[in-house]
Every structure is written in C-alpha cells, then in structure tokens.
Amino acid sequence: xxxxxxxxxLMGSGMARRLGVAGHExxxxxxxxxxxxxxxxxxxxxxxxxxxxxxxxxxxxxxxDFDAAIDVLTGPEGVAAxxxxxxxxxxxxxxxxxxxxxxxxxxxxxxxxxxxxxxxGPAAAETGELIPMVAGxxxxxxxxxxxxxxxxxxxxxxxxxxxxxxxxxLALNMNxxxxxxxxxxxxxxxxxxxxxxxxxxxxLNSTYFRTGLSEKKGPKMVAGDFxxxxxLKNMLKDLELATGTAQAKGxxxxxxxxxxxMFRAASNSGFSEQDYTAICAxxxxxxxxxx
Length: 291
Hints:
The chain is α/β, with parallel strands linked by helices. 53% of the residues lie in helices and 12% in strands.
C-alpha cells in the first residue's frame, strides 16, 4: 500500500523505517525538513500534509499533541485539504475527547480516522513489535490492517467508538509512570539506608514482582543512565491527559494525581528532556543524594 507518515520524531522515524522494510511505498512529512531528508533514499518527501495525502492510501500521524494533530490534519495545508481521501491512523497520544473531535472533523471531509495509539518504544517500532490499539470504523480498520500489522506483533481492535483506544493508552501509560516511580522510590530508600541500589534491583528482578521496566530500565536507573527512549516531558503530558480525562468523567485516580505532580516538579527542575525514568534522579536530588 501507499503509506504516508507525518511526524518523524523518535516513534515516527521508527515506524517509517519499518514500513519501508515491510515493502510498503512510503512518503514522509515533517515540519523540520532536515528530519525528512534522512528518509530521501527510501521514501517520497512531501512538502506538506496535503501533498502527502494526495498520494497515499493510508496516512499515519505521530505528532506531539492535539494542536499539532489539528494542524497537520485539518489545517489549510492539512490532509483534509487534499482531493484524495486516505484513511488516517492517528498514533499521537491525545485525550479520548480530542481523538473523537479529530475523527468528527475529518468525517466532515469524507475521511475515516482510526485512533491508533501504540505501546512500545522506537526500537519496537523499527522491528515491527509495537502493540497498536485501534478504535474507529471496522471497515476502515480492515482496509488499513496490512499497514497496521506491519507495525505490530499484536493488534487490538477496541471498537467503533472514537477515543476508546486513547483511553486505554492513557491507562497503560499511567501504569508505566507509577511503576517507574515505585522503582525509583525503592532505589532511593536503598541509597538512604546505605545499601547498593543495584542489590535492590537484582532482588526485585528475581521475584514475581519484577516488570519489564525493572528488568530493562532498573540497572540504567541505578547507573544514572537516562538516555531518552520516551522523554519525561511527554510522560508528564500523558499524565496530565489522564488526570484531565478522569476529572471530566468524575473519576478519582489519587495515586496518578500525586505522580503527575512529581513529574511536573521534575520537569520544572530540568529533567524534561531526559528519559521518563529520570524521576529517579529527581528524587535523588530532592533527598540530597545527587546534583
């Protein structure tokens, strides 16, 4: 299929490379032209989302937030301005209500949108091991399935209702943030008791309570390695979306609300561009254990 990718950050770049390897014809667009030029050998370079959409069967958007999604999809040079009507699969992490609004706006232009947030990082994107969660028209999903399955080892179709996949995505990212915080506080307590935190991590990872995060990220957290696979500022954004969604639904999620405040403080303290597990470094700093 002819596939376009709009947004070439860490995740979008991985998706684009994977789709090229999987044999789909590829076009890319990024607001910063320099990032797009890195794909010149394997894809078309579009000058605008409108131009990209004119050539594609499926357009995948992976942008920072709702404002960026509105711009690339329904702006003057957006996908909806094209005479073509591709299926849009929006992989941006936005609120359920925002995804629903996008779907409604695109429908006015005769374009079907699938909400398609994914679990997994840039490395998983490149190897086709993401876990896409999809909501929207079942017919559109079936048409786009070959593209979606090229990205994911397991695909979950949530249902027809727009926004539901985004709600699941926020619930999952809440869990990641809480787990990262719990591991960070364990490391902090071990350090405060003059115990090598690497011992804590090794013991944790030998128990039933180990997680993929504690196994893959735990040793890096102890070593102070916070090279980002997912920026702390983006996790903060997702926590704010989750707490905002809960508030709109009249739901209380007190642990997430507390962790959201911790991530806000960490972001304001200079950790925003580091990995989300740098919440560990923030805790070390406020406890006088590090810079």
